[in-house]
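As a warm-up, study this chain.
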Amino acid sequence: MGHIIVNSISKEYRNRRRQSRKNGCIESHFQDPIPVLDNIDLEFDEGEMVCILGPSGCGKSTMLRIIAGFEPATTGNVIIDGKQIEKPSSNHIFVFQNNGLLPWMTVWENIELSLRHLSETRDRAKKVAEHIEIVELEGFEHHYPHQLSGGMRRRTELARALAVNPNVMIMDEPFSGLDFMTHMKMREEVVNMHKFTGKTTLIVTHDIDDALIMGDRIVVMDGRPARIKLNHRLDFPRPRDFQKIPELNKLRQQIFLMEGVSYAV
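Now compare it with the structure written out below.
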């Protein structure tokens, strides 16, 4: 499960300003709507990892929030496994860009929070332990978020999301704020977890190299209102090395040019 169809979604936000009247009263004035997404059509196959690129503010995260059910489209709809999405669901989990762990709970407790539907304490404990092992956090079960590195906090968030056993994982800039080496390790871990779990995974990133190394497919969006500029399947073996796969390196150069950078370093 985890087949997603995005049907002609568009999104506009109302641009409001406040202005004082002469008699001292304040009233709201609405200007022309701000278009963010323009007639987006996409389809994501079951078990596919798709990386979504585009300039800041083009609407990538907005599209993910619509897919996850956190906000409605102005027009169009999203269908996941044959059902139209109208609200968030435990079947499609959103991993936010900013740290979403509860600071007063330990690693164990944060992961256990997603398993409240299991009435048996033994079943919950077994699931928590399994997912701590998946993300290699054994020995840190009783640490609080402030006692963890950035990478460990990210892994805890991934474990909490995976514990729900969703059909779809939606991740918004999952490596933001991490140092270079932690970023590289987390990227590898996400690829390995995807291979292990087989979940349909959508990832918004600004990093072209991340997208080309991780994705089964890459989607590039252009400026606001966003349209699909490139939808390209990546039929390259893993692990991927730009120096050893000339076709991948050529695609990398093309995407940098597409993003307005004449030379990729």
